[in-house]
Each structure stands twice: as C-alpha cells, then as structure tokens.
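The data layer described in this paper is built around a simple, fixed record for each protein. Such a record has a labelled line for the sequence and another for the backbone structure tokens. For reference, a complete record is included directly beneath this paragraph.
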Amino acid sequence: MRSAVIPSRGRESALWRRFVMERLHRLFALVLVLQLIQCFEGYWWTETYRVLYVTLGVYGVTELLISRALIARLTLQLLAAVISTLAFTPFQWYGWPLSWRQWAYAGPFLKNHGEQLHPYVELAAGAILVTHVIAAWGTSRARTIALIVISVIVLASVDSFYPLELWPHIAVTVLAGLGWLVVIHMRMLRDRHYDSWDALAARPFELIVPAAAVIGLLVLIGVTMPRAPVLLEDPYTLWMEAQNRDVPSSAGEGGYLINGSFLSSGSSGSSKSGYGRNDAEIGGGFEFDYSPVMSVATNEKSYWRGETKAVYTGKGWTDVKGTPSSPVTLGSDNLPLSPERTQQEGIREIVQTVKMVREDRIPVLFAAGPASAVEEIEGVSNPKLFWNSEEWELRFQRPIQVESYTVVSQVQELDENKLRSLSGVTSYGKSSIELTPYLQLPESLPDRVGELAKQATAGAANDYDRLKMLEQYLKDNYTYTNTPDTSKQKSDDVVDAFLFEIQEGYCDYYSTAFVVMARTLGIPTRWVKGYTAGSSPVDEEAERYGYMPDPSGAGTYTVRNSDAHSWAEAYFEGYGWVSFEPTSGFSIPVPVHQDAPVIAPTTAEPTPATEVDAPVAAASHWQQLVIYSAFAVILLAIAALAVFKRRKLASVWKKLVMRRESPNEQIVREMERLVRFMQRKGFRRNPHDTLRETVTDWGGRYYWLRQDLDSILLQFESARYGGHHVDEETSRRFSQSAERIRKAL
C-alpha cells in the first residue's frame, strides 16, 4: 500500500498538498460560518461582530499555516477572542488584587473583569467551535452537500421570515460549498486513481482554473439575474392560510404604504412594526422589525413626525377633508404656519439631514415639527411636494423614492408656566383655527371613557395640568406590549376596549386613548404618527453602562422600523400645538425654556440596602455567573471531546448496537457496512455479481488490498454459509481487518 501511495504524493508540491488538499476545506467552513452569523444582524452589537471577525480571521490564518497541533491552534484562536474583546469593547482595568490567596480579593477581581468579557468571548468561542465541527464533519461528498443544503435553508428561512436581505450571503454559501466539493473530488481522485492524479499533480493550474471558471460563471449568472415578480404563492403562505393562521409580512424592497395599504401584493397577515400601519382600524399585534429605515444627522434630538390625523371613528383615524396645502419651493423659507406665530421668542432652529437606508417610496418627509424650510432633496428630480400649514405635513403628490433630504424646523421651547395660564378654547369661545375637528368624538363613544378622564384629572386647576395628569395616568395604569390579548375585547370602540377590557397595548392604543379622553374634557387634541428619535452610538453606550444620555443631544441617529411611533398634540390658544407622550416607557425630547424651573421626576425613595443584603445580592450574582460560566465551559468541553473522539464514540456505539447479536450476525453486518463504504468510495459493484466475484474483482484492481479482502471474504463466507458458530475473537479480528481497509482508503 505504501509503495502505491507514496510515489503519487511525491509529485505533489508541499503547497499543493498542505494548503489545498489538507487545509483548504477549513477555509470553506469558515466562509459558511461567516455567512450564518449574518442572521443576527441588528441583534448583536457592532463590537460583537468586530470580535467575531477578528477571531475567525485568526482561525483562518492558523488553520492554513498549522496542520497539526490542535491544542496550539485552539489556544491562539481563544487568545485572539480575548484580545479582540479587550481592543474593541470599552474594557476597564481595575488593577491587580491585593492577594490571590484570599477569595475576598481574588473573587471581585475575577468578577469585575470577567463580566466585561461577556458575552463577546463566549460568542467567539462558540463560532470557533462550530467552525471546527463543520470542518471536521465535512469529509465526504454527501456530508458536504448536507452542510450546504442546511446552510442555504437556514439563510433562506431567515431571509423570508425576518427583515434581513441575505441573498448575497446565500450566493457566497453556494460558492464556498462548490469549492469544498471540488477539494473533496480531488481527494477522491488522488486516493483511487493514482496514475491520473500523478499527471494532474504536476500541472495543478490546469485543474484549478477550469473549476474556478465554471463555478464563478454559475454564481455570476445567478447573482446578476434580474429580479422577476412573484407569479406563484409560496407553499408556506398557502399552508398557513389553509389553516386560517396569520402570515408574517413586512414591507420589502420597494414596498411601502399608500393610504394604509401595502404596494406589494400578496396575502395579508400579521404586520411588522414600521411607519404606515393601517390607521383606519388600529389594534391587533405586530412583530418588531429592527431593520434600519434612515439616519438623521441633527443639531438637536427630536421625534420625527410624518402625518397628523384628527377624525376618530371608534375604530381608528382618518384625515380631515379640505385642509389647504401649498407647493414647496426647495431652498426658500416659505412654509407658513396656521395659526401664525405672534412672537419669535423661545424658538429653536433644528437642522436635520435625513439619509434613507431602505429603497422605499415614502409619502411624506419626516422631520421635527413644525418645518420651516426644505433645503434639498436628492435622488429625485422636480419632486412635487406640498406643505399643509395646519397639520404640519410635508406630503408628496404621490409616494416617491428619495436618497436624502435636509429640512429646517423651528420648534417652540416648552414653557410650562405660560401653558398653565392658557387653554385651547378661550373664555369667549373664539380661536385662531377651526377647533371642531380636534374636539370631534363619535356618538357611539361610551360615557365611561369621559368619566374615567374626569377621575384621572381630578384636582387639576388648568388644561395643561389635566393633560399631564392624564399622560401620567395612562403610563402608570396600562402595560406596554406589542401583542395585546385582543380576545378580551367586547366593546366596539377601540379606546373603550383598551381602557376597560384589554388594558394593555402599544403606542397606537395609548395615544388614541389620550386624544379621545382629552377631547371628553373639552381640550382640542390630535393624533400624530412618525418615528421616535432613534438611537445613536452615544445613547447605546449610555444604555449599556447605565448613565443618562443628553436628552436633546446633537448627533447622528439610526432610525429603525421598530422606532415607528404615534403620540398626541394638544392646542393652546396663543401658543400653538404642544406634544404629549402618554405611552408607557417613552419620553419625547422637547426643548425646555431656559428660565423654566427644572422639576425632578417623582420617584419612590430607594430603600437602603442593609449590611447583610448587599453582600448576599453580590454573592448571589457572583454565584450565578460562576454557574453559567462553568456550565458553558462544560458544554464546550463535551462538544470538543465528541468531535475529536468521534471515531472512538462511533466504535462504542457500534458495540452497543451489536451487543445483542451473535458473532456470526456481527460479521455479516460488518461486511455489509464495509461493502457500502467501499461503494461510497467509488468501488463499483455489478448488481448481478456475487460477493465473491465482486471482492475478487476489487482485489485484482487494487492489489495492495487483496490480502485483507481475501481474508475477510473467507471469514464472511464461513460465518454466513459455514453452518457453525464463530467465537467473539473471530468477530473482533474481522472488525479489525475491515477497519484496516477503511483506513487504507
């Protein structure tokens, strides 16, 4: 056997044998893992991806340069995970412990520094382990194809049912899988046809270039093919609809909402969060969509308003008919307000440059309210944009796709002292605007809604305090959830159902209830929808480390579909529209008048921890961390041991399965397994030949196997047809001979 194998390998260059034949498949496994981790886009921190990329990069280098020394490779890779965590995360060094021998010093040191490595090191170690497992398992053509199919199914499923565009990653996965199959094919060619391999090994590029050209051409054709419209409904949707179940849906590329309806066709289903949910009938549930919509560079944080609704139907919201609009001229300060501002004191100018991330058609421009000028719009020529001075809407004649735009807004500072002296309706019953739409209520509204509003605002001396009490009442007494239990709803009115039956919901419920309850008190209000401010790197750092970010800070904010929101505005004669945020867990950024007193929020006094409670809590947290870490280490160790001892485990499993069989049956089963193995390795068997004829033919072609093949054939025939029982020792020798043949192949 050695004399047949060594000469063929002698013609291979060291580069060809070590990098292509022995290690290149590890790089393909790395590519598969890099595509699979994209499924967590939007859920992992940016630092997490940096740590993973560096760690997996070190994996690729060490696996290509080092063939053996598994422990050394793993050590380098785990060390890379730790170092990259220290480099890319805000790790803080607290100094060495005073003593390693006393747990009172060593414990806090390990706790304070170990917690900062969580969860980056665990995720990086898990990615390394998965890559090793994939590389170790994909040693045959069938297994490699299975890995490709599983990876494509996972990516396609996430692409279909989550707001992620993973088609490029699917293409890369297929490309890596085809390359892996080429490596497997070359190994099989080298092991089975030495003479042919000798000729190819001397001219490797004549083999690599055609394979790379064919694979690259196939993938290039697939990637550059134009997108075709969907002609048939997918089986998943048909199956879900057949069972009367909701089908998750979201606005995909080019799909947006016009008057409450998606432009994209297809079956209706439970929606995802995003601007443009149907306002005519609010309620139900939705799934959070964390895909980015736009980025906003601004000199002051704000909510980004889109549209205003005033007519409440009992089911949802519709527009006021007949409100005038005027064309917008880019670059000129020609956006009037209705009513006009009588004074310019306390006005903040906010400049926002918005860059759209998604290729969606939008019906309005989003900006802090009210806008005073539209400086520019990129990505569209001659946009037909109109300004509604009463509703503060920048609306296109029809939804269009834009790349970016810049809007200047003039926002009134919040002066609570002045607001407490004003009201929406003056004592003589006149107002600068027509208030009827903003006091409208359906006749079917139950009386108990108004009664509850009076109870919630009892004791307030003015309209502003009534609204603040109503705002706080809704925040304190109703639970925020994106999946309210609508089975509790009995009332036909959505506000009545929210307040007295469902008693949980999301922003549409809260803001609608606030507007309706305020109107029962005679205060003119309207409903607004748009986006919250979004998130900035500064805010993310603040949330992560527990300090409060600047509520009106300048910066660039990433706005996602999950930031779609609705809130309320109330009118005060002589002041204008004032925003209110009744949704639990939300706070609207409003510029405050500099001379206004700062009122601290009312919170319960924290109960001071006793000298016993604090150590117990710290110990409990530390014990929990130790338990979780130990459990994770044990799982990783078991998985690694299973990978590197897989042959021995397979042998143990085989013994357990064959334990109940007689030695004769064990030999027969082992022979059947060996024949199937050799057929998978390319040994052909004529279906009309007997086993003796087949084995004799194989021994004639592969002379170095003839002795072992003849030996196991005689033992098999003796056990199968001899009519006498063989002993355990004979069965064991048969298994050893079969295993020797497998290793030789």
Notes: The chain is about 50% helix and 15% strand. The first helix runs from residue 2 to 10.
